[in-house]
Amino acid sequence: MKYIGFLLCLCMLPCALCAQDDSTPTVEGYITSISSGGGFDVNGKHIVTTPQTVFWKHIVLYGRDATTSDPNIANTLAVGDDVQVFGSKEKHTHSIVASKIMLAQDQEHLSGFAVVQRVVATSPQLIVEADGYNIAITPKTAMHNKPPLTDQTAPAANLWIAYSGKWNKDGLVVADRASLSQFVLSSRMKKMMKKADGKIVEPNYGTKAGESKKDGEVDIPYIVTASHKGKGQIPADAALQQRVQRIGERLIPACQKDLAKDDPQKIDFHFYAFNDKGLHHAVGSPDGSVVIPEQVVAKLQNDDQIAAVLADGIAQALERQMLTGAPKRASAGAMIALGGMPFVGPLAGIAMESGGLYAMHNAGEVSQLQSARVSLSLMHDAGYDVRQAPVAWQILSSKDANDSSTKAPSPQATYLLSIIGQEYAHGTGAAVGKQQPAAE
């Protein structure tokens, strides 16, 4: 009888899972902030929950996608979670009273190619930080390292890793395949570096008696905006420049600081605010010059948001992304920077499969997603609030910074929210307090 009862329950389960309605969501997207009392914001809309709100989540059941009701979701929601909200609009408060909330299924497969920033842990499992992810190397991971490294070579900072794997519930990418390689400064790369290097003339702050202030200059051949042709003034504002330099230096990863001065992979980072009304982000040169428009600094609200933009510029330099500007066929920044780095056998092609949570085929888009991911890891390791990153990019995408919180997240903010939800809100990098809003 017990066996028959079990079969009856088993047969009824799929029907129960399909019991929810299939109407169009009232709003869907990533949670941008969470308030007390069970409320939260999605795409600029405030969501109100009640005791009658039903929480669902996507699961994999019997080898197929399904959904199940789970009341515990209400206590685990965090900034960056991907949700669908079904409910009615409240006319007076313009909020949405949720009848049902659906938490999206985690993204499964990821692959990429990037520099190893650090070894996070060696026990009980080996975890490395690379490409903006915490990547777990397990006994089941197929290792095919590139000579002169052997397949038994342990991952270490400043090696490069090609990987393929899946997310787990702890916010780790568990690698099923991986390959380590050494940095190679090819003749092609040297030529490209010379073309990409920026030229900096330091400002004179007029600190000596009788000396007047004089703005500096920045000449960046690979930047062309509406306001200038790759050139701009570095204002002789000591407080501004010191602030940018202080925030930038804190973001430089330890793996870079630990390299010898004559190491070909060493990047001598310097940070400058310069005048440019047409540029809305930071740019990192292979020579280590990271520039940010003073107009961007003025628009942002705090050091964490400035750190988010500077970290993106640092990530561009670390992953050698500016070296992909000339060859249009490039699919991944590091692949070009390291002279192609061809992998053979099971690893062939995996570094080009995806740019993260979205399958991207344009070289520029792949690079942009990579620098966004890596920027979060740099912020996290430096102690900055990663939740401020999507807020910063949202502000920069809006004409009026005061109205940015009421609009749907920009593509850059959306992508950052997705990474925060996957890796930082619930997992091993949990630096996000779920009861705190994304921005004050």
Notes on the structure:
By secondary structure, this protein is of the alpha+beta class. The protein has a domain at 13-103: Beta Barrel (OB fold (Dihydrolipoamide Acetyltransferase, E2P)). 26% of the residues lie in helices and 25% in strands. It contains ten helices and 19 strands. The strands form four sheets. Strands 1-2-3-7-6 form a five-stranded mixed barrel. The protein has a five-stranded mixed barrel with strand order 8-9-10-13-12.
Q: In angstroms, what is the radius of gyration?
A: 24 Å
| Mean pLDDT reading | 76
Spatial arrangement of strands, main beta sheet = 1-2-3-7-6
N to C succession of SSEs: HEEEEEEEEEEEEEHEEEHHEEEHHHHHH
| CATH-derived topology of the domain at 13-103 | OB fold (Dihydrolipoamide Acetyltransferase, E2P)
The total count of helices amounts to 10
Give me the secondary-structure category: alpha+beta
User: How far apart lie the N and C ends?
Assistant: 59 Å
Report the top-level CATH class of the domain at 13-103.
Mainly Beta
What does the largest sheet look like? 5 strands, mixed, barrel
What is the secondary structure topology, with strand pairs?
Blueprint: H1 2-17, E1 27-34, E2 40-42, E3 45-48, E4 54-61, E5 64-69, E6 82-89, E7 96-103, E8 109-121, E9 126-130, E10 133-137, E11 142-143, E12 160-167, E13 173-181, H2 187-196, E14 199-201, E15 216-219, E16 231-234, H3 238-251, H4 254-257, E17 270-274, E18 283-284, E19 289-293, H5 294-299, H6 303-318, H7 333-337, H8 363-382, H9 388-397, H10 411-424
Parallel strand pairs: 3-7, 4-7, 10-13, 11-13, 17-19
Antiparallel strand pairs: 1-2, 1-6, 2-3, 4-5, 6-7, 8-9, 8-12, 9-10, 12-13, 14-15, 15-16, 18-19
